[in-house]
Design brief:
By secondary structure, the chain is mainly alpha-helical. The protein is built from 9 helices and 2 strands; from the N terminus they run H-H-E-E-H-H-H-H-H-H-H. It is globular. The two termini are about 30 Å apart.
Length: about 180
């Protein structure tokens, strides 16, 4: 009986393939970038939302972790075809680490709500807000090592311009995920 329980917790070959594929999609979406100001507009958040909605919290979070690890070891998967631990430890690294927070919040919502779509979508919004908070705190900490910056300036540079586009990305991910899930 315990062997059956153990086997259910292990990722299957299909899980691994789908996770790898979604990690690649996150990387490709990070390359679609409009460099404005301090933080570029990318489609990373769209891909993170899509990962959660299509793969679920566990596999979606795993896809984000794989993406982050690929970038950490130097593979150029981050925006601007950058890679390396220096990117993660840089000013925008907190927002990328915040993608893991989005996944963890989504995973928790899935467990608590039996995959109720309204609750799961709301959890993505909550995860995004936590990502903004963590990323902004990180940005202020790293940026303050060279120049002074206040919270409002950081929010004006790093959060406010992204709110509407990120909500649009979430809406698009919800629309796309319904179609993609049929084939996964």
């Amino acid at each position: 009986m315990s062997d059956i329980a153990v086997k259910r917790n292990v990722l299957t070959t299909k899980d691994l393939v789908m996770t790898a594929l979604m990690s690649v999609i996150i990387a490709v979406c990070s390359w679609i970038s409009i460099p404005i100001g301090t933080v570029p507009f990318t489609l990373q958040t769209f891909a993170v939302f899509l990962s959660m909605l299509v793969l679920g919290g566990k596999r979606g979070t795993f896809a984000v972790l794989v993406y982050m690890m690929l970038g950490a070891v130097g593979i150029p998967v981050f925006s601007g075809f950058k890679g390396g631990i220096g990117v993660i430890l840089g000013t925008t690294g907190g927002y990328m680490l915040g993608f893991i927070i989005i996944g963890l919040v989504y995973m928790l919502a899935e467990k608590l709500s039996d995959e109720n779509s309204i609750i799961c979508i709301s959890s993505l919004v909550i995860g995004l807000l936590l990502c903004y908070a963590f990323g902004t705190a990180w940005f202020i900490k790293v940026y303050s090592e060279t120049k002074e910056i206040d919270v409002m300036t950081a929010l004006k540079w790093c959060v406010i311009p992204f709110i509407i586009p990120d909500i649009a990305k979430l809406g698009f991910a919800v629309l796309i995920s319904g179609k993609v899930k049929k084939y996964v």
